[in-house]
Write a structure and sequence with these properties.
A hairpin with a 3-residue loop joins strand 9 and strand 10 (407-409). Helix content is 52%, strand content 10%. The protein contains 16 helices and eleven strands. It has helices at 35-45, 66-72, 85-95, 101-104, 107-125, 135-151, 165-182, 189-194, 196-224, 226-233, 240-246, 257-288, 290-304, 312-315, 319-331, 371-388; strands spanning 49-54, 58-63, 132-133, 338-341, 346-347, 353-354, 359-362, 389-393, 401-403, 407-409, 414-419. Bound molecules: protoporphyrin IX containing FE.
């Protein structure tokens, strides 16, 4: 590991200086599927911070204490998620109207539409006593839904495997980031850049940026035309891009093209993989606890009556289901930790320092701007799934949680689905 003067000695963690090396956090101590549990036990043992070793020569610093995390989060890059200081504040203010309930309201029917496509697929897939791997289907569903909400783009990515190159690029990038984290040699920028995966990653980035740039340019040209502007104002719903393009601060300043692209990218990635994880683990929890599953189903049936779809007004009435969703998010947090790479050295409140280039994981996070959007999507997916299927776990294929960027399962999430009459 790069030296971390004053913070860590040997491979022990902070908080229990007497623990120097024995049982110290090392990736090799993690059994398959036991990563989440192990990380939690280390967090208890080292309440401030600890270096987690990968191989014998490299480590990332896992930060647990809020005072340390605060210092770490004072540093950043592009896009709301990784901005900091006044620029973060300005972007956050510009973006906040994009998550107002007036904007989110029409998204509910778009989410329901995407969920139904997924459930139709499951109906075709279920065979007697054979479980269905859900995670991949849910990921495509949330991607489909975010494409509609972000760009008004109806991609058909759930049914058409040859769909849009942008969808493919986003899907590829999500997978490649995950793969890079898991494969140690790829942590080195040079090795990664010259590897086939690294080249695929660059190409996917290029395609994704090309698409976003094109959409921004076209929409901007529209906005300069008064008639088109009126058309946008009369649209059934405003997508995220409309909101971003119209956003102005008190001095009338909007976002630059580069900032726009970074925000769209953040929205796309934060907005589909996180909810995919949340929904998949929620359905797994429902399968594990049939009594809660049934209580949620009854609540949903009572709210909907004869209706087959969910509307905005229903969401606030799903009291018991909301409690179950929150419990599932607590048990299986879609974003278990966040990481930062230090672009300059930092000094903590107690005088300890870290050099530039240190890779950190912090358990304390910013407030998610998309949490209402996410909650709506989780509720819609839960309601429509429980109306159509009874869920139970596949004892032969229990999921193995792996907290990477997003909490996934290394072997997917397999559930038995029984179509309800
Ligand atoms: C269950 C779903 C979700 C979870 C668990 C989640 C979790 C988080 C977390 C932990 C952060 C803080 C990250 C940090 O401090 O580095 C965050 C930030 C953020 N999230 Fe979410 N998120 C979810 C859904 C969404 C959705 C659906 C969107 C957009 C549509 C979104 C957009 C963002 C953005 C833009 C930020 C940066 C906010 C800022 O820095 O001010 N998230 N999210």
């Amino acid at each position: 590991m790069r030296t971390v003067p004053g913070l860590c000695s040997g491979s022990g963690g902070l908080g229990h200086p007497e623990d120097s090396t024995a049982g110290s956090p090392h990736s090799s101590l993690i059994s398959q599927g036991g990563e989440l549990k192990k990380s939690l036990s280390w967090a208890k043992k080292y309440p401030y911070a600890y270096p987690r070793w990968i191989g014998g020569f490299m480590a990332t610093l896992v930060v647990n204490h809020p005072d340390y995390a605060k210092t770490v989060f004072g540093h950043g890059g592009k896009g709301l998620l990784i901005l900091h200081g006044p620029q973060w504040f300005q972007h956050r203010r510009l973006l906040t109207p994009g998550f107002h309930y007036d904007v989110l309201k029409p998204y509910v029917s778009l989410m329901a539409e995407s969920t139904k496509v997924m459930l139709d697929k499951w109906e075709r897939l279920i065979t007697m006593d054979k479980s269905v791997e859900l995670f991949e289907h849910v990921s495509l569903m949330t991607l489909d839904s975010i494409m509609k909400c972000a760009f008004s783009c109806h991609s058909n990515c759930q049914t058409d495997s040859d769909s849009d190159y942008y969808v493919k690029a986003v899907y590829d990038l999500t997978y490649l980031v995950f793969h890079r984290i898991r494969f140690l040699p790829f942590h080195n920028d040079f090795i990664y850049r010259i590897s086939p995966q690294g080249r695929r990653f660059q190409e996917a980035c290029r395609l994704a940026h090309q698409h976003t740039d094109k959409v921004i340019k076209e929409r901007k040209t529209f906005l300069q035309d008064q008639q088109e502007l009126e058309k946008i104002q009369k649209k059934k719903y405003l997508d995220f891009l409309d909101i971003l393009l119209c956003a102005k601060d008190e001095n009338g300043a909007g976002l630059s093209d580069e900032d726009l692209r970074a925000e769209v990218d953040t929205f796309m990635f934060e907005g589909h993989d996180t909810t995919a994880s949340g929904i998949s683990w929620l359905l797994y929890c429902m399968a594990l606890y049939p009594e809660h599953q049934q209580r949620c189903r009854e609540e949903i049936k009572e709210i909907l009556g004869d209706r087959e779809t969910v509307q905005w007004d229903d969401l606030g009435k799903m009291t018991y289901s909301t409690m179950c969703i929150k419990e599932s998010l607590r048990l299986y947090p879609p974003v278990p930790s966040v990481s930062r790479l230090l672009s300059k050295p930092i000094t903590f409140h107690d005088g300890r320092t870290l050099p530039e280039g240190t890779q950190l994981y912090g358990k304390i996070q910013r407030n998610c701007i998309g949490k209402q959007f996410a909650m709506n999507e989780l509720k819609v997916a839960l309601a429509l799934t429980l109306l159509r299927f009874e869920l139970s776990p596949d004892p032969a294929k229990p999921p193995k949680a792996i907290p990477q960027v997003i909490l996934k399962s290394s072997n997917g999430i397999h559930l038995l689905l029984r179509k309800l009459p």
